[in-house]
Write a structure and sequence with these properties.
The chain is mainly α. It has three domains: 17-51, no CATH class; 56-157, no CATH class; 167-279, no CATH class. Helices cover 56% and strands 6% of the residues. It has a three-stranded antiparallel β-sheet, covered by helices on one side. Helix 2 (18-29) crosses helix 3, helix 5 packs across helix 6 (138-150) and helix 10 (195-213) crosses helix 12 (229-243). The radius of gyration is 26 Å and the shape is extended. 20% of the residues are buried.
Length: 279
């Protein structure tokens, strides 16, 4: 290994970096030891990359949204946030929506896109968020969401995700569609959920239904599956409802495959047939 002379002040020059300058400022301004200041610097660097170092494409905006896993009732100031990228403008589809449905239709079209993009990135937008982004009022957003629901769409907002309102949870609605023979593509279109999300709900349902079949009580299932009491009750109700009709999808979902079985699985993304639907 070649010897490097320090005659040129290499060690001192190496310390004259932006990184070391910031660490020195943290040390002096907050009376920290150099080791603690360096630890703070590393953590702040991660925060910067997560929240500020965002590269945007045409039509995209960066927005701070609440993490989808944050529970309901927690003060918004204390919730974990994520910086997400959302397409505020997408000329490929926005112009068509504007031409066919006017300004109100364009707003609803964007509302559906924004909520889906936020959820796909692990966050949720509230009515207030959507009102700010779309330059309208929360009451207008609420009316838009209600109208879209009447048209068969499920809009994923923070309130809907945590089932703050009355009625069935969005997960239950999605599972009901699946067991009634809808394809993943159709469910995605009707509920504004990705296929990945639908499959995740099916996995959760399988766990609850399997435990129920094995004779576990509802409190035990809730503890093991780590699901809310309401969701466990809804999943069990779905199982009871469709098992009465020998629903083929339910049977296939809960029947373990035999080792070495060569039976071909029927694709769940095939067009619906009358035999798959329950009255």
């Amino acid at each position: 290994m070649a010897y490097i002379s320090n005659d040129y002040g290499i060690k001192r020059l190496e310390s004259k970096t932006t990184r070391n300058a910031i660490i020195q400022k943290l040390t002096s301004d907050f009376n920290l030891t150099p080791i603690i200041a360096e630890a703070f610097y590393k953590q702040f660097s991660l925060y910067f990359k997560e929240h500020a170092d965002i590269k945007l494409a045409d039509g995209e905006v960066a927005y701070e949204a609440v993490d989808a896993n944050e529970p309901a009732g927690k003060h918004i100031r204390l919730t974990r946030k994520r910086t997400i990228k959302i397409n505020l403008i997408d000329l490929n589809t926005d112009l068509e929506a504007l031409a066919n449905f006017g300004l109100a239709g364009l707003r609803r079209h964007r509302l559906m896109r924004l909520t889906k993009q936020a959820y796909d990135q692990g966050t949720l937008l509230s009515y207030e968020d959507l009102a700010m982004i779309l330059t309208t009022s929360p009451s207008t957003i609420k009316r838009d969401v209600q109208l879209l629901k009447k048209q068969g769409f499920f809009i994923m907002t923070r309130g809907a995700k945590h089932d703050m309102g009355p009625g069935l949870s969005h997960k239950t609605i999605i599972l009901d569609l699946y067991f009634n023979g809808y394809t993943f593509s159709e469910i995605e279109q009707k509920t504004n959920h990705s296929e990945t999300s639908v499959k995740r709900y099916l996995t959760d349902f399988m766990q609850v239904a399997t435990l129920y079949k094995q004779g576990f009580s509802k409190p035990q299932i809730r503890m093991i599956a780590k699901k809310s009491d309401r969701l466990v009750r809804e999943y069990i109700h779905i199982y009871q409802t469709f098992s009465k009709h020998d629903n083929q999808r339910l049977i296939e979902l809960l029947t373990p495959e035999k080792p070495g079985s060569q039976a071909k699985k029927k694709s769940t993304d095939q067009p619906r047939t009358g035999g798959e639907q329950n009255d």
